Amino acid sequence: MIKVGIIGAGRIGHVHGESISKFVKHAEVKTVADPFMNEKTEAWAKSLGIQKTTKDYHEILNDPEIEAVLICASTDQHSPLSIEALKAGKHVFCEKPIDHDVEKIKEVLAAVKESGKKYQVGFNRRFDHNFRAVREAVASGKVGRQQIIKITSRDPEPPSIDYVKVSGGIFLDMTIHDFDMVRYLSGAEVEEVYAEGSVTVDPEIGKAGDIDTAVITLKLDNGATAVIDNCRAACYGYDQRAEVFGSQGCVAITNDSDSNAVFSGKDGVVAEKPMFFFLERYMMAYAKEVDEFIEAIVNDTETPVTAKDGLEPVLIGLAAKKSVEEHRPVKIDEIRKVYGL
Hints:
Helices cover 40% and strands 25% of the residues. It has 341 residues and is an alpha/beta fold. The chain has 2 domains: 2-117, Rossmann fold, CATH 3.40.50.720; 126-277 and 312-338, Dihydrodipicolinate Reductase, domain 2, CATH 3.30.360. The strands form 3 sheets. A 7-stranded mixed sheet has the order 12-11-7-10-9-8-15. The chain has a 6-stranded parallel sheet with strand order 3-2-1-4-5-6, with helices on both faces. Strands 13-14 form a two-stranded antiparallel ribbon. Strand 4, helix 4 (78-87) and strand 5 form a beta-alpha-beta unit.
């Protein structure tokens, strides 16, 4: 049994605490640390059988029984906590992104290499049953030579303006999952990005220096073209669809809903709306990603989402941001050269 510590007891920390306690068979959460620990969080942890709560994450890093750390703190803490945990001899699971700053991601990559410990980035959609089915169909050759990849990702409601201001922008906060999905579904790398963006949901998002609606076209090194469309608000719920079209066929997934019941009556045919948001839609994917992280530790195998997989979507996101600002296609190599990659 691998004993785990969770740093950060916010929304995503709660998700991982519950999923590990209920669904991950070879792991046990021993300690949860959060600087804002309170009685409510302590009661939540106790209800899951978690032994200890603390305001000081160093208690996790200094505990010889704890082999792995889940970093669920605020984004600006992901890279420094990753490095500190690796130096403390812990295996690390870090929520996305590793950082918005490529130089800091490079420091994490170096720390991973030096430590020899397992490191996994939390791109949970790779572990969703629908997206994994698409990947398996593509990898098995069923669609033949890939030609077009389409990904739709629309949130049910926009985040707060306070969050928008520190999010890193839509491409590094929201679309980063879709950039990862393009790489995952295709098994290819992105060579060039062209993005168009606008503010169609909330003018305050524009005043904060961001966009809330975007369409991105990506050229891949396998010759395929990918198209992503994003919006911060969809009145019907969390819209998560994907399609890979190729020379031998097409594989596509649609949204999950609470049931597949369809009512047919004189006024029309009505089906359920998509699940409301990511917690409902991807709860089992969160459990699966940690389960595979723990299995990599137990079996001494490579984690399914490496630190390099954490770097690439950030580079794509920076290229997309530059494309919107300069109204032109941007090659990923342009971004790599800036950071000496």
